[in-house]
Batch of 4 targets.
Target 1
Amino acid sequence: MKIRKIFSTRYLREQFDFLLAGKWLIYGSVIGVVSGLGAILFQLLLSFVRQLSLGKFMGLTPLAPGGETEIFHLGTGNFTPFLVVLIPTIGGLIAGWIVYTFAPEAEGHGTDEVIKAYHKKRGIIQTKVPLIKLLASVITIGTGGSGGREGPIAQIGAGFGSFLGRKLGLNTRTRRWLMASGMGAGIGSIFHAPLAGAIFAAEVLYSDPEIEAEVLLPSTVSSIIAYSVYSMAFGWHNMFIESNLVGFSSPLELIPYLILGILLALLSHLFIRTFYGINDIFKRLKINNIFKPAIGGFLTGTMALMMISLFSDTTYIVDIMGGGYGILQEVFNNGVTNVGLVLLFSLSFLKILSTSFSIGSGGSAGVFGPSMVIGGTFGTGIGFLFQKIIPGIVQNPVAFTIVGMAGFFAAAANTPLSTIIMVSELTGNYKLLLPTMWVCAISYFIARKWSIYRNQVPNMNYSQAHFGRYSPQIITGTIVADCYKKNRKFSLVEETSTVQNILALIDNSRQRVFPVVNENGGLLGGFNIDDVTHILHEPNTEIETARDLMYTQIPVVQLQDNLETANKLMNESFMDEALVIDDSPEKKVIGIITSSDIVLTYNRRLSEMNYGDQDNKQHTPSDSSVLKALALKHLVEKDLITVHPESTLRTLVNAIIHSKRNIFPVVDEKQALHGIILLNDIRSIMFKNDSYDTVKAKDLMTQPPNIVTLEDTMQKVVSKFEQSGAWNLPVVDKKLHYVGLVSKSSIFSQYRKELIKHAVY
């Protein structure tokens, strides 16, 4: 190939996607810069409030990670015990007021809200949330609440990513990427861990070992830029400084590490159960939410004061409060000698309680920092015990500190890959990569059934972000023979049947499409229930037999046709049923396939893809169900004609003529639903003129076979349709006031549109 051709503009444009790379470089850089600046602002405010509260007022001297020097030097005041309780209480009160007044979604650990926004809110985070999260978290952590920086900075970065996506008018898919990129950028910057931040953003979304690959590269760009911006202000070193790097030198060490992994998994379970147990208690408290974080702060401060009195030590006990990284840095600096085994285990369990009080009460902070302290102190204690028992194998307990940090959070958050990288980047120690991988894998596999992030979903099948991912595979790979109900009763209409015969047949049938056949059973055509309704409206029509009523363009499928074909035919004909015929020359009708058959088959096949066959009696996950994604409130028909219970037959007939509907809700002036009138039920009386002014709606109405409420899930709505056999059902609100009607056709019409989408949201 000629050199000139290789460097030609046309060749470069065809072979390389510079436009895509440039777009994501710009998006990622903007998010990275803002996230990095947000991390700088957050760290400055947190440092100031922490030194003012813990140092100047309480008289405590919390240790900091070796890679983070104190920015403000406000001095240390005299130790004042009652302020150890009072300041966290006041901090909780202020944080609670800020959160619950301006942005309730900013309470708790922010990463979980970002995960929820990714899966269930189309990547939308309200603009005010990042600012509220920043202020509330600075106050919560800075005044002594036990929490970390991961949650706040994740929500701050993700919030800007969501904001940018909305301002640029980007689609939902891209907005999700930007939001996740902001989360990775925030974490990568403030923890000096750009690679881990990028991977964390892609991994934390799922509890299964699955990575959101589409997020990984955009998040990498943002994380690199954010880390660079943040490090320009605070330095390029690791967060923790480990003076003597410990490593891995013997396969025999894997045995104690195996035990550590098991214990960390159990400890993570205790942490999660305690955290959400306390969280549930606070939710049940019958007081204003604003005061709950104050109670959490009071309990945290009281516990810290009690432990200070018990141990006569403020140097390490203070790590029950705030981020608590100081004791880990002390272990890295001087080993276990200065800390002691009792204090290590005490801190690991007390940190579980203080974090649960501070965040579980509604305070605003992250759980990553406390998890590092819990896992690190517990791991150090276990390593110290092993050193005493098998000194020839375990020579330095500090190795168990680093591995414990990783193993605990991997189990608690279901994020083994990013945690392995995170801890390595935090400490700058890659010599322990192998035992860290070993322990993280073990603790993760044991702890897969629980997670500190409740909004994680198992995998992409559960996520609305990947709604319809398997639709093409299912609807093209499933044939009609596997879908339609072979034992369903259906009626055939002979071509010579009179209108009276047809009306009598319809009275005893729930079909919507009726095949018209010749004397040999061969299909000639068909008609819809709406065509019969037209006859009722115009009784003087020239239609006398089924042959006059039928038309040939009716949806027809064969057993070997796939669901995509059936779906398309019904969609194009605006019908909810299609006729199933055999492959004989006569084209004999052997059954009917309905929209609900397609719905149920799709969900069954999706369930089988997730869990195996139906013998295990497991069901499709609710979040991945196509029905779950449909909003009932958008399917309710609210502008239909209703009749009053005292309305006469004359009024009803006028309503029928003007609306051309088959069902009429009977509703009084208070919107209370009394019953329904079905067109078929009054067919015999609606032409009796002498009854027009004597018969009333309340005399003709019947009770609906079922009633749908606005709170019903779409699965429950479909179940009510299946159980009742109805095609329209009334919808009521909580007070049983009539809202409108929902029909099978509206549900399945919308369902079909979603089903044939090949692109994700």
Note: The longest strand covers residues 523-528.
Target 2
Amino acid sequence: MPDKIYLDLIQLIKKYHPSEDFSMIKKAYALAKSAHGAQTRKSGEPYIIHPLAVAHLLAELELDKESIVAGILHDVVEDTSYTIQFISDEFSKEVALLVDGVTKLDKIPYSTDKEEIQAENYRKMFLAMSKDIRVILIKLADRLHNMRTLKYMPEHKQKKIAKETLDIYAPLAHRLGISKFKVELEDLSLRYLHPEAYYNLVEKIARKRDDRVTFVEDIVRDVEIQLEKVDIKAEVIGRPKHFFSIYKKMVGQDKTIDQIYDLFAVRAIVESVKDCYGVLGVIHEMFKPIPGRFKDYIAMPKPNMYQSLHTTVIGPEGETFEMQIRTYDMHRTAEYGIAAHWKYKEGKTSQTTEQSEEQKLNWLRQILEWQRDMSDNKEFLDVLRSDLDIFADQVYAFTPSGDVIDLPAGSTPIDFAYHIHSAVGNKMVGARVNGKIVTFDYTIKNGDRLEIITSQNSRGPSRDWLSIIKSSQAKSKINQWFRKQFKEENILRGKELIEKYSKAKSIPLSEIMKPALTQMIQIKYGFKDWDSVCAAIGHGGLKEGQIVNRLYEEYKKTNNHIVKSNDEIIKDVVDTNGIKSKQSKSGIMVMGVDDLAVRFSKCCNPVPGDEIIGFITRGRGVSIHRTDCSNIINLSELERHRLIEAQWQSLDVKQTGRLYQVEIQIIGSNKTGLLLHISKVLSDEKIPVKSLNARSIKGDKSIFNVTVEINGVEQLSKLSKKLNNIQGVEEIIRTNC
């Protein structure tokens, strides 16, 4: 049976493919058949039938041989021991890229409850599509065959997969213009999500079928006769509307099936655009058109490049029906979408075809641009859902020069401005519609002519605009503007939020912030540096918990923690170092231990008078920290076993004669001479200064970071009081903690 399906596949490919060399496809079939071996599907049939069916669907779209081969091999890496590298070596890097893309998509878990996971899955999908659009074509074919065989799955999985299909894959097929796949995916989803409604609909339409078929056949015959009279060659056919579109209309308009008359549509396919409008004239002469029900998608194509004339008319018996008129090329595009004019490597394409393909890919590029700009998974998910909404109506408006702009229904002049260019939206101060000034929240109507008024003195968009605009594009660009304007503040706020969250969850901040770990996060979320990650957290685009938890997970993966008792840890340290130093040298006494090396932590710089605690390191003795040090507070439960009590051997600074480095931050006004006053206090107090850095921040503030040497908390407190007495000093903070 598989061999017969394979031979049928080759015959189908031969009908459209210019090459006679099918050796690569034959080799792929042999490998897949061998690799899947005795594997079977839930239906009990050999597993190899599934990849062959996927390849057959791709051949129906008339895709190239590389796509067919990838379709045959798409589950080999996922379900067998073969690797992507093997596929690349045996076939080509191009085939390996396609297989790898689909393999990754198959690993995406779908969840209706965990939006963060769902959003990341969307991101993975579009990144795979960005490498090669054929990835999603293969995945759509894979999903369609899975839906055709869904009856063998348990009921809960049927509903889960059907919901995913209706939410993601059917809208994707629609967006890419592949009506052939979209219609069947929708109908099959309806069958499993709402089986009672589906079978009820099937039964009722079947009862009406005979009457409706006769009605449509009469219409088709009459139209053919009239077109022959005016010498227009056309293929006229009647077709039933698919179940999901009828169900959607019944639910959306709260009607019964008896109240819906256009269960069938009549379609005329002609040679030229001129003939399309000629057929329209004949139809409107034969039947009375219903006002407001004519749509010209030839002059104004849909975003997925669908073109056709639609008109709803009243038939000879008073019943309404829809007439669709298009060229053969438009019909092919409507059925196959992005795959309609797929470019073979062997052939050349015209500039017009290439431009058409570029237009079809504009939407995908827009999604990828959003993906880069939006670090907030929830925001990205909301925008994507909105843009994938297959039920969303469009409104068409004109620029002053007469160009057509299509926008979501309910759009405002702000949406229009950002559709033209982000610079136009950012400098917008007003708008005229049909020559009259309108408010920003004006709802654009079909046929409106808009003129956007801009000014170089504009302060930029208002946050209030986000509540009135409709298009995803405008929302993305406005949010992007705010992120750029306040990047510095967002970076600082992001770092504060990370530290605060880590402290609350007792996660070791110093450990998870290692460059190797932060770089993994940058790559995962597509940021160029760590500051960009912090900025995203600062403006609310990313959740600090999401980032910190991911860092901590990676940290735990790369550090195999073994929980030991204090005695065991101390023994390890002593055994490793062979240390025999006395505690009096450091001025620190570690409880219960006489001969451990002691060093002061640079993260918090403890000084005599501070409450302290020891942390037993791996191979470097005991590190002394302040008890309020963020690194101690944020220790994980696994690390807390390494803490040990410690105290100052003597608080008599004269006895020890030792100095300790401390960094303080002085925040004050941008007053001239403030630095001079600070330096004078330090000099008068005879405080050794190791470093001093000053900078201005937005507004009228200055920040001075000063590293000094002191003998203890008492001297630090005295210094702080002196500095606080300087006019213009607002706050003094002990840093490094």
Note: The radius of gyration is 35 Å.
Target 3
Amino acid sequence: MKDGFDLKEELKKLPDCPGVYIMHAADDEIIYVGKAINLKRRVSSYFRAKVNRGPKIDKMISLIDYFEYIVTDSELEALVLENTLIKEHSPKYNTMLKDDKSYPFMKVTVGEDFPRVLFARQMKRDGAKYFGPYTSAAAVKDTIELVKKLYGIRTCNKSLPKDIGVGRPCLYYQMGQCAAPCQGYISKEEYAKKIDNLLGFLNGDYKKVIRDLETKMKEKAASYEFEEAATYRDLIESVQHVTGSQRVVKNVGIDQDIIAMARRGQETVVSVFFVRDGKLLGREHFHMTYSDVTVDERESVIALGDAENESLSADKTDISTDNGVGTEIITSFIKQYYNGTPFVPNELLVEYEVEEQELLEDWLSKLRGGRVHIITPQKGEKHKMIDLARENASVVLSRDLEKIKREQARTVGAANELANMLGLPSADRLEAFDISNTSGYQSVASMVVFEMGRARKNAYRKFKLRTVTGPDDYKSMEEVLTRRFTDERFDVMPDILMMDGGRGQVNIALKVLNNLGLDIPVCGMVKDDNHRTRGLYYNNQEIKFPKNSEVFGMITRLQDEAHRFAITYHKQLRGKEQVHSILDDIKGVGPARRKALLKHFKEIDKIRNATIENLTSVKGITPEVANAIWTFFHEAE
């Protein structure tokens, strides 16, 4: 247990009130986040004798080193906080939604004097009217183009009526797609009528629009104005294209999301059908992970709800059609998905009953601003829609399984292969370093991180060299590694340190690690005469691997990424004209002090070697700034 953490004493301190509990492993990693109506009862239950908890929970409990908790005023508040923490930390033992999508909306700024129609990715409380969500950004853009032609509604950012008469009318006015309120060509009252018609159209009054367009088309044709008649004909076709492709279902006036799933092993696809005003607008599929020890051990390939699997032996029932697993996955999906989407429908039709349905309905109703019902249909039209969603999920899962396997082979599989090749327990986190300079002028370095074979770009780091001048890659690498492994902000150590080069770079890394008392394996990524990855230098010997192997591909990507990241950083600096002086990076040194320092000392090396007393002799350099300058140049030594 964590130093100072007494499990028995901490359990006694737990309050009898709602809240969120957070389980940590020995390395401080958050492995599970849960909510409870009574923290004392819920958290204590994890540490009692096993009572049919299942292998997944037992495995998680064996990894718990300590816990913490946050008290809330209500269970609903705990639910919201739980969702936020799960999204932020992605705990290993929480069922996780992989996708993080936002759906487009059409926004009409009705609060303005001359409202606009806009494309939006988020629904905000800004007084505007939102229509959607749509499953296709292209559909939103097509509809905006259509309503501009139908009603001449503006899409510009001009502030009206303040800017009326400023500048010339835009191209959309010339094309007949804007009524040009910016020029005063239409009154506020006339424009408001257009907005009312637009809102009617977006609310589903398509028949009236088509009827009006047909009347105008016939009038133009009767007066032999065939080009204008053709324009109205094209508009009718556009309206029919935008509205006619929607599949009609029953329950007109009801907004529904229909949620079902398919699962094989640890891979799950959740399918969501969007029904708006009784019309099926589209569907989306989401991949989720579900960690289950039983699944791992049996290596089963089973889809939930798949009729072909009903004849499976009884001992596999718990992982093929177990309602408990389905309930957990669907409940987790609802919590995570609706916590991030701005629109919640009247009804959720779900394949499996959800946990704490009443609480979830209260939470969703609060998000919607109106009552939301979660229904698990057993028969009838609604059950048929569940069957359709499940069938689609199964198709997507079958299609994507091979892709998932290939991706796992080139990432997790490659990392495991590397660990086996080197005889190491793990290669989960790799850190690669590279130096970039132009004839030694303003050297910079990159640190690239791969975790489980995948680039983890939010862990990348850039370094400007402080103590090295000239093209000395060894000295540069020594400084960078020293800074990396003495900086307290780096709280995770790599499983393997990957150097861009052979024996020389490896020895520099080993020297730094030895000086700091660190035991981390170091590999050199060796290139051939054509500057292509050839093998690894490890323990004083070169290890080659087949060029068609997954580990070869991963090492090549890692080496190329480190080089690319360093070069990109160097180009950015040159583009900003910042490479002339590293003094720009010192806190408290602005243009005036930099100029005074260079005027006094003439060279960067003389500033680097100056004492604090020498530095304070320069006009404008206070003792605090002098100390910052000295520390900047000497902290990596």
Note: Residues 245-250, 293-321 have pLDDT under 50 and may be disordered.
Target 4
Amino acid sequence: MINENFDLQEELHKLPKNPGVYIMHDKHDEIIYVGKAVNLHNRVRSYFRENIGRGPWIDRMVSLISYFEYIVTDSELEALVLENNLIKEHRPKYNTMLVDDKTYPYIKVTAEKYPRVLFSREMKKDKSSYYGPYTSAGAVKDTIELINKLYKIRTCNNSVKYGVKCTDRPCLNYHIGQCLAPCQGLITEEEYKEQLDKALDFLNGNYGPIMKSLEQQMNEAAAELDFEKAASLRDLLASVKQVAQKQKIENSDCEDKDIIAMSHQDRDAVVQVFFVRNGRMIGREHFFLKTGDETEQGDILSSFIKQYYAGTPYLPRELYLQDNIEDAQIIEQWLSEKKGSRVYIRVPQKGQKSKLVELAKQNAELVLSQDKERIKREQGRTIGAVKEIEELLDMKGIVRMEAFDISNISGFENVGSMVVFEAGRPKRSDYRKFKIKTVAGPNDYACMREVLTRRFMHGMEEKRELLENGQSEEYGSFTRFPDLLLMDGGRGQVNIALEVLDELKINIPVCGMVKDDNHRTRGLYYNNIEIPIDRTSEGFKLITRIQDEAHRFAITFHRSLRDKDQVRSVLDEIPGVGPSRRKALMRSFSSIEEIKEASVERLAELPEIPESVAEIIYSFFHSDVLK
């Protein structure tokens, strides 16, 4: 099952002994498992040891692994948060039992005149400042309590104003020296801000003074034999140390950004791109480049940005780079025009964003030193294969390809599938299924006409709605149209697609994937000409993968509909069994066979099934006719 370009033993040997996240892929490039590790080398290797008693579920997952990749982090805590982000983004099959909807806690500093420091489970665009995320809710609460005690930050939600009392008397926190009582109008905004700035300094990572003070107080309490106070200070100190592990994997501005860094050696370079969406890092890509002998890093980054973002379907609001580039202003202007709104190029010098750029650089260095040859092979399979197809068709700028297929059995449950490949890789989040509504019987041409019409009309309508609401097109599910449309067949299918596009006044190149008598791809049909293709080339292999994926996706959808129909038809034939009783039976029994084998008494145990209906069900499955 291992990918032909992936030498398992070689890649296991190269694994670093750093903390990080590992991502397991199957032969269809689908992510099937995401995990974190304190030591990537030890953890990932453990999956491929012989019979270590990990259970059939994990054994099955391991048997499906075609290749793996990994992202190095600076701490186990960062790995944990990144793992959570990737699981929520990709929903891998073998993480299903582990995935929940919990969110990690943040520390929120409100945007009020007299701000409060609060516990929060989510980030909102409400002008507040957010710190985190953190993995220990208890430690966050302890830290907020500590900040409030040390800096006397208010905890009430009263609307306060200097010189104006908003309550008859201050709360208990004021009387025990833990609040400056702005509710009594006793402190100016400037005086309160001085205290808040000290708290923010702490949250921004300047833990030294506080930790030193706590440790000193703890030692003094112990010396005075006040062990209860010493223990309390010790626990607070431990909480501060736990929170002190700053997270670079998420940040509080909720903006979409790409983090770009590179490593350069001789004439080889690797550029690493981290994708941060809505404040969360959700994935990465790395790119191998050939350079000149003395090419500067800034020139390499500039060339990469121009080439990569010329074709990518989505542009973030911000690009963060490790180095300044000479033509940054011109590139900013070009990207802004392409996106339709302002794009910023920044080089962070300090803080969280700078650390994230440094992390991307570390991953680029690791890839360059260990994975250079594998990346070359992989790019040959993907980007290289796309370039071969461009040359065959005399086209340029192919990034997104969409392929369609129809599936039915003698006209039963006609369905259509749409699969999407970008830069030579499947983009499963954009796959779509179509249940044919207007065609009865086995008419593939009519089915394809319906599928294509629905796909592009939906996209046009979605674009129109987004533009009317002042939103960017990239947020729609159908708005991104392909650079090349691939049809599973020759002249007939291509002509159907061209007719639909002509009716909708859309200009997209259409290419047919022509098959031989053995149902194998033999060439491409484009501009009324069949173009032969070298069966050993990467371009041919990519076309075959796309064709197989479209067929697989359609067949899988069709099979699921057949299975559902078979379940419905058997149970619905039983007198007295309607929708609610059918659901109760399927909820309580794992299969139709189990229902068949159940006794009258067992069936009648269900609250929804009275004994008289249980006898009817039993008789239905045990009658002479069925036997």
Note: The first helix runs from residue 8 to 14.
